[in-house]
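Need the bound structure for zinc ion, inputs here:
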Amino acid sequence: MIRTGPAGYPEGSRSPTDAVRKVRAAGLSALEIQFVRNVLYDPIKAGEARLEAKEGGVLLSVHAPYYINLNSSSPGTREKSEEWILRAMRGAEAFGAWMVVVHAATYGYDAERCTEKVVDSLRKVRDRADSESLNAVIGLETMGKKAVWGTVPEILEVMEEVPGVRPVVDFAHLQARGPPLNAERLQVLLNALSNVPRLHCHLSGIEFTAAGERKHLRLGEGLDHRMVLDALRDSGTEATVICESTSPMEDAQIIRRYLGQDI
Ligand SMILES: [Zn+2]
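Answer from helper R.:
Posting the output first, comments after.
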C-alpha cells in the first residue's frame, strides 16, 4: 500500500488531534509534522494526536529543523545540530511518529569528509537516542541543491555505517539536481532501494536552475508526478508519499486519487 498525506497540518487545524482528523477525513493516511523552525509541542496534545493517528490509521513522521549542518566548521554548530535531531526525535516519540526527516549537511569547507562527518554525528545521536529509548528512525533526505550533501549513494553509505537510518526520497529534489528523472532512472533508483521497508518519499512540483532546487511548486509543475507514481506503484514498494507542494492537502488528494487508493 502507498500511504499519502500532507507536509504540515491542514489549514485551520485547531490542534494536532484535529489535524490528524482532517487528514483522515480527506481520505489520506499519512501526515508529516513540521518541526522545521523549532521543536515545540504540548506533550499532552501530542499524546492525544498519537492515539487519534493510531485509531485512524494515519502514519505520522516529523521533519527536523532546517538549521542542521553536521559538517559545519564550527564544533558548536555540529553539537547543536545533533541536539536538534535528538529534540526532533523526542518530539517524534511524543507523537508516536516513526521517522525524523533530516537535511543532514552542506559540503561547505570539507566536501570530501562530509559523509564521514555525517556518520560520526549520527552514531552519537543514535547512541543517545537508544539510551533515552527513542524509537524513531532517522530519515536522510535526498537534497535538491548541488552544494548540499544528500545524494542517494551518499545516503546509502551512511545507512551501511549507522543502524536506524533510512533514505527519504524527495523526487522533486532528484529532478532539480539532475539528470532529469525518467521512467528508466526511476526504475533503477527504486530497484536500488527495494530492500528499504516502507520507503518514505516527498513529492511536489519544483523550480530549479543549474545549481539545483529553487523552490517547491504545485504538483505537476517541473516534474511529471504521474510518471513518479507509476514507477512507485509498478515497483511494488511499500511507500509513503508526503506531499510538499505549495498546496499539500489538495495535491495529496490528487496523488491519492491518481493511485486509486481509498482508505
Ligand atoms: Zn526536507
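Comments: The two ends are 10 Å apart (CA to CA). The chain has a mean pLDDT of 96.
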